[in-house]
C-alpha cells in the first residue's frame, strides 16, 4: 500500500470519528459565522476522486481527478469543464500547480512521474522518477514501489520541487535540463518512515515541507542541500498542507486536532490556532491576496478564514450537506476561493 493511501485511509477514519465527537478540551480562538456567495459545479460523473485545485493566470481552475484518471479544468467564463487524460495515467494524480506561463505541472504518483501539460498545444511531457525496492515482511519478497510524488511547488527559477512520500525524500526537477535530484530526509535513506507531504517555497527560495508521520516541519537549503527539522509540539497530530506568506512565515494544517499552525523561522517558534467549528479536522490551506489564511474543514463541511491581525476565524458553512471540502486555492485577481468537494464530485467557489 502506498504512503498516500495509508495516510488517506487513516484520515478518512478520523473524519468519521471526529464528526461525531469534538475534543472539547482544546483551546479555541474567536469565531464568526458568515454566508458569502457560494457556487457549486457538478462534474459529469461520480467517483471523480477530486484532489487539490490550482488557478492559472487566466482564471481557469485546474484540478486532479484520481478516480477518473484525468486533469480537469474549469473555465469560469463559460462554466465549462474539460477532462484531459494524461499519458500512461495510473489513477495517481496528486499535486498540481499552475506556472506563470499558464502551463500545468502535476504529480502522477502511481505512474511514477512528474508531468507537464501545455494547454495551448495540448502536449504532455513526463519526467520519470526512480523506482524503489522494498522487502515485504509478509511474503519475504521484494516489492517495487513508486517514489510517491505528492505535493508540488515552483521556485523563482522555474524548478519544480516535490515531496516523495514513499522515498522519504524531497525532489527537484530542473525543467531546462530535465534532470531530477533527490534530497533524502534521513541518512541512511529510508522508505515510508517520514511521509513528507506538503511543500512550499518562501520568498528567499528556501524549501519547506511537512512530515505527516513524524509531525515535523522540514527546511531545505537549495544552495547547500542542508536539511533542518523542527518538531511540532502536538505529537499526536499529522502535519499536512503548508504555505509561505510574503514575510516568510510558514502556515500549515494539521488534521487530528484541527489546528492551524504558524511557524516563524527567525524565532523557530510555533503558534497554533483552532477554529471553533462543529467538528474537527483541517486539510487544505491557501492565502488570499489580502493576507488572510483560508482552510477547508472536511468533517464540518465548512471553509474557515483566519485573519492574522485579529487571530479570529470566520466560518463559512457550505450550502449543501456532506461535501467534505478538500483542497483549496485562491484567485488573487477575482478574490474568489476555489475548492474541491471530495464526497460529492463538485467544484466549489466562494466569493466572501
TrEMBL record:
<dbReference type="GO" id="GO:0016787">
    <property type="term" value="F:hydrolase activity"/>
</dbReference>
<protein>
    <submittedName>
        <fullName>Hydrolase</fullName>
    </submittedName>
</protein>
<dbReference type="InterPro" id="IPR015943">
    <property type="entry name" value="WD40/YVTN_repeat-like_dom_sf"/>
</dbReference>
<keyword id="KW-0732">Signal</keyword>
<dbReference type="InterPro" id="IPR051344">
    <property type="entry name" value="Vgb"/>
</dbReference>
<dbReference type="Pfam" id="PF24684">
    <property type="entry name" value="Vgb_lyase"/>
</dbReference>
<feature type="signal peptide">
    <location>
        <begin position="1"/>
        <end position="24"/>
    </location>
</feature>
<keyword id="KW-0378">Hydrolase</keyword>
Amino acid at each position: 500500500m502506498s504512503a498516500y493511501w495509508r495516510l488517506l485511509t487513516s484520515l478518512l477514519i478520523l473524519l468519521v470519528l471526529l464528526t461525531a465527537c469534538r475534543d472539547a478540551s482544546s483551546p479555541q480562538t474567536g469565531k464568526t459565522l458568515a454566508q458569502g456567495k457560494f457556487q457549486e459545479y457538478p462534474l459529469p460523473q461520480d467517483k471523480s476522486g477530486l484532489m487539490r485545485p490550482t488557478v492559472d493566470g487566466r482564471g481557469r481552475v485546474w484540478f486532479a481527478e484520481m478516480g477518473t484518471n484525468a486533469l480537469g479544468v474549469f473555465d469560469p467564463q463559460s462554466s465549462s469543464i474539460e477532462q484531459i487524460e494524461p499519458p500512461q495515467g495510473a489513477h495517481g494524480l496528486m499535486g498540481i500547480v499552475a506556472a506563470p506561463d499558464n502551463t500545468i505541472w502535476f504529480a502522477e504518483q502511481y505512474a511514477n512521474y512528474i508531468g507537464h501539460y501545455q494547454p495551448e498545444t495540448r502536449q504532455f511531457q513526463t519526467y520519470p522518477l526512480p523506482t524503489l525496492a522494498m522487502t515485504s515482511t509478509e511474503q519475504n519478497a521484494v516489492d517495487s514501489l513508486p517514489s510517491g510524488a505528492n505535493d508540488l511547488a515552483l521556485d523563482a527559477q522555474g524548478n519544480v520541487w516535490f515531496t516523495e512520500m514513499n522515498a522519504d525524500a524531497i525532489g527537484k526537477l530542473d525543467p531546462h535540463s530535465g534532470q531530477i535530484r533527490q534530497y533524502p530526509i534521513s541518512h541512511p535513506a529510508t522508505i515510508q518512515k517520514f511521509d513528507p507531504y506538503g511543500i512550499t517555497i518562501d520568498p528567499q527560495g528556501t524549501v519547506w515541507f511537512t512530515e505527516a508521520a513524524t509531525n515535523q516541519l522540514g527546511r531545505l537549503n537549495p544552495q547547500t542541500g542542508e536539511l533542518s527539522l523542527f518538531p511540532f509540539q502536538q505529537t499526536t497530530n499529522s502535519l499536512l498542507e503548508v504555505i509561505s506568506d510574503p514575510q516568510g512565515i510558514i502556515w500549515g494544517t494539521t488534521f487530528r486536532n484541527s489546528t492551524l499552525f504558524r511557524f516563524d523561522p527567525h524565532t523557530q517558534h510555533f503558534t497554533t490556532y483552532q477554529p471553533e467549528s462543529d467538528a474537527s479536522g483541517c486539510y487544505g490551506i491557501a492565502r488570499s491576496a489580502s493576507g488572510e489564511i483560508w482552510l477547508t474543514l472536511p468533517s464540518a463541511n465548512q471553509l474557515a478564514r483566519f485573519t492574522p491581525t485579529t487571530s479570529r476565524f470566520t466560518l463559512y458553512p457550505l450550502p449543501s450537506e456532506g461535501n467534505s471540502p478538500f483542497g483549496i486555492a485562491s484567485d488573487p485577481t477575482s478574490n474568489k476561493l476555489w475548492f474541491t468537494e471530495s464526497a460529492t464530485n463538485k467544484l466549489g467557489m466562494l466569493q466572501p
